[in-house]
């Protein structure tokens, strides 16, 4: 049996036959979204293309943002169902993408988002910054800010997980890309999910 990922990301692991399982949802802790809202001024209209059961969507809407929620699987409460990587345009009126992308396809998620939106904010493992393979999306593409959590995020396990809850063993950060940003180096900002 494959081990479940240890990330609060919405992750859709592959079955042995290569298809994706819709039941493997890892929801973003609300405190992570609250921390983002304290660190960034967000657009009024946002697209959340890996919405899952709506963890990020709920917090953003509670703070007055209009959020278009979509996902590749219908978890209920979505504005539409569709594969983000196949989308050719932003939903009407949306000015930003804010999401916690599926871990296994985070790189193509970022790449596609940068093609579509002027503002892209992704919750990613801090180690995402380490790869030479990702230079094409990390350098010269407008990575303006990285909001690193001082403490590890509280971990949300896979849907219907009955085991012990624990803190995540991985460091996460909100990474912010602005189209046309070229005013110097990426700013590293340490933030807290605790008030």
Topology at a glance:
Blueprint lengths: L29 H10 L5 E4 L6 H8 L3 E6 L8 E2 L14 E4 L6 H11 L2 E7 L9 H4 L4 E7 L22 E7 L8 E5 L4
Parallel strand pairs: 1-2, 1-4, 2-3, 4-5, 6-8
Antiparallel strand pairs: 5-7, 6-7
Helix pairs in contact: 1-2
Would you give an account of this structure?
By secondary structure, the chain is of the alpha/beta class. It has one domain (30-191): Vaccinia Virus protein VP39 (Rossmann fold, 3-Layer(aba) Sandwich), CATH 3.40.50.150. 17% of the residues lie in helices and 22% in strands. Helix 3 (106-116) links the parallel strand 4 and strand 5. Helix 1 (30-39) crosses helix 2 (55-62). The relative contact order is 0.20.
What's the gist of this structure?
The protein has 195 residues and is α/β, with parallel strands linked by helices.
Distance between the termini: 39 Å
Helix content: 10-25%
Q: Identify the CATH homologous superfamily.
A: Vaccinia Virus protein VP39
Q: What can be said about the biggest beta sheet?
A: 8 strands, mixed
Quote the average pLDDT: 85
Rg, please?
Answer: 16 Å
**CATH class label:** Alpha Beta
Summed up, the domain count is 1
CATH fold name, please?
Answer: Rossmann fold
Tell me the number of strands. Answer: 8
CATH architecture: 3-Layer(aba) Sandwich
Structural class: alpha/beta
Order of helices and strands: HEHEEEHEHEEE
Contiguous helical run count: 4
Shape: globular
Provide the spatial order of strands within the biggest beta sheet: 3-2-1-4-5-7-6-8
Sheet-strand content, in percent, reads: 15-25%
Poorly predicted parts: 1-20
